[in-house]
Amino acid sequence: MSFIKVDATSDFSFHNLPYGIFSTPDNVKHRIGVAIGDQILDLSVILSLFRGPVMSKHQDVFDQPTLNAFMDLGYEAWRETRKTLQLLLSANESTLRDDVSLRSRAFVHQSAATMHLPADIGDYTDFYSSRDHATNVGIMFRGKENALMPNWLRLPVGYHGRASSVVVSGTPIRRPSGQMRPDQTRPPVFGHSKQLDIELEMAFFVGRRTQLGEPIPINKAHEHIFGMVLMNDWSARDIQAWEYVPLGPFLGKNFGTTISPWVVPMEALLPFAQPNTLQDPEPLPYLQHQDAYTFNINLFVSLKGQDMAEAATICRSNFKYMYWTMKQQLAHHTVNGCNVRPGDLLASGTISGPDPESFGSMLELSWRGSKNIDLGGGETRTFLKDGDEVTITGYCEGDGYRVGFGPCVGTILPALQH
């Protein structure tokens, strides 16, 4: 399909073409790239080749240090850009293929690049849209009879997170400190979190901005969903358990959220769409859509301790287990007139499936610390230890190709002394 050789197991096939922000030792400027195989195509070098009716007027967005300006152009600009990229990278197109000088300037090996956050993230919203996860947590804290709160099946529950602590894959995460109340018969104590956890999530970047007071109707929601990343929304369970009533997560969540650097465009994922989860009771009309917007994305979480020779896979899940779709999340988020801006990040919440191996948090995998997670070689965990490296990977499987996201990695550093 492309003149760039791509291994069948590569996340970055010709069918993918995700966007990211990178720099190199010889050029520290942050610039927009597209991944294909083990290469990055530098769009700042070839911006003059975007000559379509929309992008010919906006070539300058590819000379920016983030994706925000490109995201703000909207759906038709994204589609036109993707078609141009597919043409330029195709095996039968000579513009790049046969221009040795241009190719030498336009392509960078991924191993030579440093990846950065794809966008300036102005706002970050975290949803709670996996029924299996919400049920598991509800059973732990409230019992089977009250596992789901009365609103959960009626609307996509969410909260506003902290955008400043969203970091790119590879950034170490410091163990947080805060108030906890491990003994309910005694006053709270201050200290380092002893129940540091992962949360397997995915997130999407919002594209074209809206004005304050302007809802996004559900039949237009796809025009504002630019693309998806993997996410690890680290969580300090002991801090969160004490602080979250009545306003929800705060210090237990805002110390770090890790995302993968490559943003996979929705058009690359549409071939992997499947029928949405049957929702009962039927949502209110503003949340109803019939088109398939649930995606078959295989997800994996591995953990490698400091003394482990190799990582152990602790979770195998899938994005298709989500109850609420991204369209429903965005329509609900804005139905009150809340405006969105390019680069806003909206996350799924922990993704858990029906089987124990598909539980997307250590809270569930260890069932609130009551049983050990076996990592092999005598290593076990209930929650994270200092030095643990957690890697999330995910991909869609096509016929002889993958559409993947690259790794989302974070390592736990010891807490600072107070």
TrEMBL record:
Residue intervals of the Fumarylacetoacetase-like C-terminal domain: 125-403
Location of the region described as Disordered in the Swiss-Prot/TrEMBL record: 170-191
InterPro entries assigned to the protein according to its UniProt record, in alphabetical order: Fumarylacetoacetase (IPR005959), Fumarylacetoacetase-like_C (IPR011234), Fumarylacetoacetase_C_sf (IPR036663), Fumarylacetoacetase_N (IPR015377), Fumarylacetoacetase_N_sf (IPR036462)
Lipid biosynthesis listed as a keyword: no
GO BP term (any one): L-phenylalanine catabolic process
Positions of Mg(2+) binding: 233, 253, 257
Binding residue positions for substrate: 128, 142, 240, 244, 350
Residues the record lists as binding Ca(2+): 126, 199, 201
Name the UniProt record assigns to this protein: Fumarylacetoacetase
Taxonomy of the source species: Eukaryota, Metazoa, Chordata, Craniata, Vertebrata
